Amino acid sequence: MIKYNKEAYQLIHDGILALSRVEQQGICVDLDYIKKEKDKITEEIKKLENEIYDSNFFKVWEKSSKTKTVNIYSGQQLSRYLYKIKGIRIKKETETGQGSTDEETLRKLNIPELDMFLRIKKLKKIRDTYLKSLERECSDGYIHPFFNLHNVRSFRSSSSAPNFQNIPVRDEESMNIVRGAIYPRPGHQLLELDYNQLEVRIAASICKDKNLIRDVTDGDMHRDMAIEIFRVDKFDSTIEGHSKLRKAAKNGFVFPQFYGDYYKNCAENLACTWGELSKSKWVSGQGIKMNGVHLSDHLIKQGIKSYVSFENHIKNIEFDFWNKRYNDYYRWRETIWNRYQHKGYVSSKTGFVFRDLMKKNDVTNYPIQSSAFHCLLWSLIEGVKAQNREHWDTKIIGQIHDSIVLDVNSSELQMVLNVMNCIMCNDVRQHWDWIIVPLEIEAEISPIGCSWAEKKPYKF
DNA sequence: GGAACTCGCCAC
DNA sequence: AAACGTGGCGAGTTCC
After folding, report:
1. Distance (Å) from CA A74 to C1' C14?
2. Cβ of A45 < 7 Å from strand B?
3. What's the confidence (pLDDT) of residue A1?
4. Portion of chain A with pLDDT greater than 90, in percent
5. Rounded CA separation A367/A374 (Å)
6. Is the N or C terminus of chain A more exposed, i.e. has fewer CB atoms within 10 Å?
């Protein structure tokens, strides 16, 4: 039998208390701004809808429809029209075998009405998922998102009402509109403290892979993999194309591999999504530009003349990645997978036990994902303690898996940064000596009185 | 008219 | 043998 782990219990106990304080403090939102933005969006949607309704594309759809009225927002109706009526060849299917109507698929069809439709969908997402929920959950100018510790299979957290953990950040326009509604308190600034590569550092601590420890301590694995994947001999991040290659290696290979993906998916994503190439024949002048040279020309010159040979190339890189570069990590995964199959459970470093029926990827990911999040949770608990003990005017207002969001009084900024840096990078390692690599945080901050959309990296 | 489902999309 | 991990949420749809 597994012993009851008092330490794991205590972490959740303290975590819930700290997070309830965070929830109670809340986050300022600007309701007038939200109303204005919603109206602007509604106007634009109306215009675009009318354009679609006036189009020949739509009229044919209406004539061929089985239903009385066409609902352009019904995936089923759209799928039937595109693939059954218009006879477009299905390139991607959904889980249930229906022709897909996701953004990537529709974009490739090059139909102007569908581009308008996708624009509407994006605007609706901003309005209906984000702005509406901020408005709905706002009381007296504040929202109080829940941070739950009891929902997630891996013992991470979740957030709801509204979900504070999926606010747009990558897409410029969505980011600006939604984060433009979120404000610090008067005289304050929004500060986000983000662990640098937390999950990878925790993975290195758990599997003790020598090369992984080296790379998170004093290296750049994404750059290294970009060099291998794209066969560039000298890497210069000041060249725009090269930082794109590094990003491609990171998001198209390294992370997916760590999560348990395999080379076929990686090859497709690297070539098509990140490299802007196609799976059909590679010809000159395709793909992202690096120093004026297109990726297709570069790869062809390097002897990778087609998608098929690129896939094979990625297969070899995957083999090296797990059998040479990170072989200790690979062996750790095999070991705990075997142990799970014999004993029926696996544990995190923080004392949590997973006894569900799990796939291999689950068994190897959960201990890492949970231990990483628990570092953040421990830091948050200590941060809230400091806030209370020292009577900060600064408030911890949220948490996003590996980052802490604060509403900081500008006069306390340097002090708060020092205290939080000490907690997040030093104290947590004293508490858990199994963390055997350095931890680092990065900061982003918005100017006084400005919304979260104005956040900028902050060196300290 | 609500529960449960699918699909799609936002975050880490 | 398997083949990307974790959530929340909105809209459409189907079932009861």
Report:
1. 14
2. no
3. 45
4. 90
5. 11
6. N
- Residue A178 CB contacts under 8 Å (≥ 6 apart), including other chains: A126, A130, A131, A134, A167, A168, A453
Work out if A402's Cβ lies within 7 angstroms of strand B: yes
d(CA A148, CA A57): 46
List of residues 6+ apart from A112 with CB closer than 8 A: none
Instruction: Give the Cα separation of A134 and A126 in Å (integer).
Output: 11
The CATH fold of domain A36-135: Taq DNA Polymerase; Chain T, domain 4 (1.20.1060)
Q: Which two tokens mark A54?
A: 């006036």
Q: Would you state the pLDDT for residue A408?
A: 97
* CATH number at A3-26+144-200+368-458: 3.30.70.370
A402-457: per-residue pLDDT in tens? 999 999 999 999 999 999 999 999 999 999 999 999 999 999 999 999 999 999 99
The residue lying closest to nucleotide C2, measuring its CA against C1', is: A360
CB under 8 Å to A255, separation ≥6 — which residues?
none
Nearest to A102 by CA among A112, A89, A111, A93: A93
DSSP label of A178: H
